[in-house]
Amino acid sequence: MTTDLSFITNEKNQSLKDRFEVLIKDTSFFDCLVGYFYTSGFHALYNALEKTEKIRILIGISTNRQTYTLLDQASKSNQGVIHFSHAETKEEVENLVKSELADSDDNKNVEDGVSKFIEWVRDKKLEIRAYPSQNIHAKLYIMTFHRGDRDIGRVVTGSSNFTQAGLVDNLEFNVELKNRSDYDFARQKFDELWNNAVDVSEKYVQTLEGNTWLSQNITPYQLYLKFLYEYFKDELSQADEVFLKYLPQEFMKLEYQEQAVLNARKILLEYGGVFISDVVGLGKTYISAMLAGQLDGRTLVIAPPVLLERSNPGSWTNVFSDFRVPADFESLGKLDDLIDRGIEKYTNIIIDEAHRFRTETTVTYEKLAEICVVKGWFW
């Protein structure tokens, strides 16, 4: 099989990134026309571009659904393509950059690449423009060699965007064109589009430095919020819900109680026990009943006698009955009876006022420990 292929597919030893690194190191100019350009992936190629005199990147602007609908309607009514103003184009670019960096990896490679991008924009080595009339779906890379080199340059065109996926990860089909006529045609078309595009270089830099995680003006409060997000982002991304077989007719569903049920269930499944603790009046008994309804196996509730009486509207027995959650109930003072009868049939044990058993040297602590050899949770 010949190795002198014009096609570049990103298969083994044929990545577009590898080919670029060979070609770009000898270029004086590098022109790039793409629908999507990811600043966060700039680290993949900037080393090869160090000796390049000028880099021009032309992108299609990002359009939201409303904009797309307007464009579609205009096309169908023969009104032609709607042109965005310069201000609208820059606004779309700002949204694109913020969205990209929000989803990018927070690591040194990305930070180094974006820093180099900003440095080169400031030095006028790199310029980026956006075409204001419609999305650009073309992928075109033009490399102009130094004067006196083997020939004028190379053109690569095909399916790859200027992204990690396009350069390395995805199976792509790109072709390298070496004829002078192909180079001249591509360069002429690029220059025509470039001259009608909006310069967004400074807008890129302003957005990167002021509206992304790369900003140098992060306040302690913003850093705290970022820490909370990173710590809880797995939970935030979960679409868990509290599925209840029955809700009392006059029960008011409260978001904080449902979130407490989800959190308690997660802790319980991971550690085999959980404390539900909150101030008086926030509905710990209701939270417990809803949680018990999410669990498999039989449930035992151990509570003070007064909180088991049917005459008490907020008692354990009444609340579990209202939610139609089956459970057995026993008084805190009858632990011996529980031990004698055996508790093997219970999978879940709820202990009301668990603080009464906080001292390990007491007899009641030892009895409760014996009972809770099975899974248990407390509040």
Number of helices: 13
What count of structural domains? 2
Gross morphology is elongated
Output the CATH class name of the largest domain: Alpha Beta
Poorly predicted sequence stretches spanning 5 or more consecutive residues: 63-82
The appropriate CATH architecture of the largest domain is 2-Layer Sandwich
CATH superfamily membership of the largest domain: Endonuclease Chain A
CATH fold annotation of the largest domain: Endonuclease, Chain A
Largest sheet: 8 strands, mixed
**Strand line-up across the major sheet:** 1-7-6-5-2-3-4-8
- SSE arrangement, N to C: EHEEHHHEEEHEHEHHHHEHEHEHE
Mean pLDDT: 79
Quote the distance from N terminus to C terminus. 72 Å
- What percent strand? 15-25%
Backbone CA Rg: 33 Å
Helix content: 40-55%
Outline the structure in words.
The protein is of the alpha/beta class and 379 residues long. The protein has 2 domains: 7-224, Endonuclease Chain A (Endonuclease, Chain A); 239-378, Rossmann fold (3-Layer(aba) Sandwich), CATH 3.40.50.300. It is 40% helix and 16% strand. It has an 8-stranded mixed sheet with strand order 1-7-6-5-2-3-4-8, with helices on both faces. A 4-stranded parallel sheet has the order 10-9-11-12, with no helix packed on it. The longest helix has 18 residues, at 86-103. The chain is elongated and about 100 Å long. 28% of the residues are buried.
Summarize the SSE layout with pairings:
Elements: E1 7-8, H1 16-24, E2 27-34, E3 54-60, H2 65-76, H3 86-103, H4 108-122, E4 126-131, E5 140-145, E6 153-158, H5 164-169, E7 174-177, H6 180-195, E8 198-199, H7 201-210, H8 220-237, H9 255-271, H10 284-292, E9 298-303, H11 316-322, E10 328-331, H12 335-341, E11 346-351, H13 363-371, E12 377-378
Parallel strand pairs: 2-3, 3-4, 9-10, 9-11, 11-12
Antiparallel strand pairs: 1-7, 2-5, 4-8, 5-6, 6-7
Helix pairs in contact: 3-7, 4-7, 9-10, 12-13
